Amino acid sequence: MAMEHVINSEKQYHETMLQVYDLMNKGEANLTEADVKKLTAMTAAAEQFEDDVLQLKPARQPNSLPEAIELFMFENKFSQARLADELGMGKPKLSQILTGKRKPDVPFLKAVYHKLRLDPKFILDHI
Question: Helical H runs in 27-64?
C-alpha cells in the first residue's frame, strides 16, 4: 500500500521539504525501506503542490561550466577567493578558468565535482 502525503499550505510545503532534505542527507545507503517510501510520497506531494499552487518555473540552467560555477558562487554567497580556497587552488587559476583563458584540468574538475556537487554528466558535457 502506497503512503500518501498531501500538502495544503506553504507552511506544510516547507516542513515537508525540510523532512525531504533530512532524509536525503542520511545518504541513500542509510535509508530504510520505510524512509524510501516516505521520501517518495513527500517528493510527489511537493511536486504536486509546486505545480498546482506555487507554479514554480524551472530556473534558467547554466550553459557552461563557468556559468554553473558562477551560479554556485551566487547561490552560496562565495567570493572567487573563498571558492578557490574551497577547491584547493589559487585565485588566479580559478579566475583564468572562469574567464576561459585556461582550460580546466583534471584536479580542478575533480574538486568541482566533490566540493560543489555538480552533476558529473554536466561537467563532462561542458569541458
Answer: 33-49
